[in-house]
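worker-3 :: picked Alpha/beta hydrolase
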Amino acid sequence: MEHILTASGICISYQDEGDKNAPVIILIIGLGAQFTVWPESLYFGLVEKGFRVIRFDNRDAGLSSSLDELGKPSLVKHWLSRRLPIRAKLPYSLDDMARDVKELMDALAIKKAHLVGASMGGMIAQIAAAKYKKRVLSLTSIMSSSSPLSFSGSNINLLVKLAKIRPRSSNKEAAIDYNVRLNQLIGSPAYPQDEHALYANAERYIERAHTNQTGFKRQLAAIAATPYREQLLKKIKAPTLVIHGSADPVMPLSAGINTALLIKRSKLRVVPGMGHDFPPALMKKMTKWIAKHAAKVSAKKAAKKP
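worker-3 :: tokens ->
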């Protein structure tokens, strides 16, 4: 694992694998998650497909900068600020997190890259593709949304269940148990994961870095305060692939469909029975989709060179 300091003063922990002269894919993970949530099979699968692949911890997650000096935000105020004339001091926005991606590219001397974002990472990738058009070769948005936080029957039910399993203590065992139960709740009904494997993954995850609860809330506030991105997404010129599960309890399928409708000439792949996770059984297929999408764009770019 490596660290780099961006122009904005954010220390980013990242992993960089593959031929340094190969086309670059940058993986952007979701809310509160460390970059190790990206499955090894997908990560190194993309490397084997001929790409240089970078995954990193967002600010306030994993081993990247923890911005506790920015305080603990009021999620209700930030959510209401989109609807009412209420002022709420936002620690940072999703636009700031999209700028982190650009500055990571600057620091690593990467001129252009294919962006792949999951959940909140998909939102960040969408913003980056719209704001930094010349830097983004293609976009892949996985289990994400083009709209702010919204509530449906499935995710309200999920929130109630999450509240019930909230850990009573902050020790390692409680954190591991919560991580396992969380992944079971948001997992794919058609692709249930082995509990022993989930515990092994959770133990490695918690040993690398404990979840920063205030950092999680600052990221959540950034999502809550972000307005509907309809006009922004219409500006995206990069070829786009949208991947969404039919059984996602966090982001309903309609969120993926709407994202695909807003981005011109985008392609939508609906995965039957997939929830809000990366089922091992689907990683070979997902790796193939992402690699094919990025390779096609890279080939077109190479063909245009004199």
